[in-house]
Amino acid sequence: MATTTTMSEVGEFPLISSIVKDLPMGRAVTLGPGDDGAVFQVDGSVVVSTDVLVEEVHFRRRWSTPTDVGRKAVAVNVSDIEAMGAVPVALVVGFSAPGDLPASWAREFMAGMAGEAEKAGVSLVGGDTTAGPVITIAVSVIGQTAGLAPVRRDGAVPGDEVAVIGQLGLAAAGLVLLGRGFRSPRAAVSAQRCPEVPYGQGRVAAQAGAHAMIDISDGLLADLGHIAEQSGFAIDVTTSALDIAEPVRTVGMATGMDPLTWVLAGGEDHALAATFSPGGVPDGWRVIGRVLPPDEVADPTVLVDGQPWERERGWTHFHS
Amino acid sequence: MATTTTMSEVGEFPLISSIVKDLPMGRAVTLGPGDDGAVFQVDGSVVVSTDVLVEEVHFRRRWSTPTDVGRKAVAVNVSDIEAMGAVPVALVVGFSAPGDLPASWAREFMAGMAGEAEKAGVSLVGGDTTAGPVITIAVSVIGQTAGLAPVRRDGAVPGDEVAVIGQLGLAAAGLVLLGRGFRSPRAAVSAQRCPEVPYGQGRVAAQAGAHAMIDISDGLLADLGHIAEQSGFAIDVTTSALDIAEPVRTVGMATGMDPLTWVLAGGEDHALAATFSPGGVPDGWRVIGRVLPPDEVADPTVLVDGQPWERERGWTHFHS
């Protein structure tokens, strides 16, 4: 009789070993997994960020494959390093899961992580696996500044053009679809399962001299709000400049909902938003607004077409 | 009427802000919490390690104060950097907790982390807080090699002296006490709540030329087993050389259990074990065994007084 091998049966240590074995390591890594710590070299200063994904808060097993979840765990974290204009180098993962989780789930999850890590150009150098009541994934990514100053949230100045790269509203549209039991349009559903992070574009922005940058995890308005607040200037978003992707429009029409809400307030797409001197916006980035001088709007807030936005500004994940 | 403010009421973002505000940062940190990533400088290569603590697996709220848990989360992680002979620099924390957790618990936990981080000489540079069914804490610590090669597990050679520094068996004795509803001897109970890590001694061992090193998280025999296995040589532990601390003996007598079991197989004390050339053991370290030549014992195992150890070798935490 075929049986499912669970985490409890495999045990904590063999699972870790089987996972870390044969992982490809970047050239910077001088000691990979299997010791008390991993060792690697960095060029310049270190940039670090951490994010936690919890089952039923950030993903659902019935909606996402283990590969999706593994990819997402890498993507959302690397995105933070991109948003600093830095180069991701290495990541570590803390994984806790119930004892009755099929070991195959954990293995496929790790395969997803490994695949996305390769895509993002980062080495998975270590981890810790333990028991817990739900799947909880904590990833920390370490990057290097490699000769460029980190791009912070507080550097926007009046007159800057605000530009974005990556998807907006696609993951939010996908969430609405999954919540109603639909599986298409596929692009939206896939984006909710794992965002397509514009890898390398954070570095492009830094090289272009971006003044401020953030990754859009909570929603365009909410995250631009962080730039506005920390820089001390208002931002005005021009909705006619926003690209509402075709699948987002389709979901809007099918559900009778306004797709602009997803573009402005939907999170989890992990697009990048940055501000540049006029004319300094790199190729491929879309200008969607500008940073206002304080004599025009004194309050460091985010306006939409010059007006306050009365609807939701950001995203707080689904709740079970 | 006095009420308890919960995590749900405070919300995710205000809590993070209130936690990271006013944290002291080391001189190496050029950008602290509050952006997409924190930035700091390292001397030499980067060493990274991650550990996860789950409520009811690694700690119990009825046994430990939030401060204890916060201290422990730092201590067990920094210990891994120490075990590489590196200098801890920065740490990040992923914290997930139920919405009905009193916000004061999270604040006291963070205060515990901050206090232990200061003691360990490491800066708490960032974090992520999210909802989850039980308290889950994932800490990643980043250290620097600062001019010394990392001390790995695989460098032990025949003839080496095996030495330890820090407590052995104290946390295991404390666990037995807590499990039976006792609160003394205090030293044992405290060690279970948060180990006293011998901060700085990993660096001392590296400077003394340690060949191999590990932190004892799973139990002396289990962890020496990793050195033996990865180095390819057997290790013989001499029980008469072991120091059984007075509180460990006391708990043994009170419970009728053999305290040697806790010293050899009890985990969670986060003592350090290392191997050195004969005569090269630093002050304060206790020699407890030696690395055997393959013609004496071919199998890279750990013996106790020259014999196989038939009882448990290591530790897998309590289970609820």
Explain how this protein is built.
Chains A, B: It catalyses: thiamine phosphate + ATP = thiamine diphosphate + ADP. The structure is a homodimer of 320-residue chains. With 320 residues, chain A is of the alpha+beta class. Chain A folds into two domains: 10-144, 2-Layer Sandwich (60s Ribosomal Protein L30, Chain: A); 161-304, Phosphoribosyl-aminoimidazole Synthetase, Chain A, domain 2 (Alpha-Beta Complex), CATH 3.90.650.10. Chain A is built from ten helices and twelve strands. Chain A has helices at residues 7-10, 12-20, 66-82, 103-120, 170-179, 186-193, 201-207, 220-231, 246-255, 259-265, and strands spanning 29-31, 38-40, 46-54, 87-97, 123-131, 136-144, 161-165, 212-216, 235-237, 271-276, 286-291, 302-304. In chain A, the strands form three sheets. In chain A, strands 8-10-7-11-9-12 form a six-stranded mixed β-sheet, sandwiched between helices. A four-stranded mixed β-sheet of chain A has the order 3-6-4-5. In chain A, strands 1-2 form a two-stranded antiparallel ribbon. In chain A, helix 5 (170-179) runs parallel beside helix 9 (246-255).
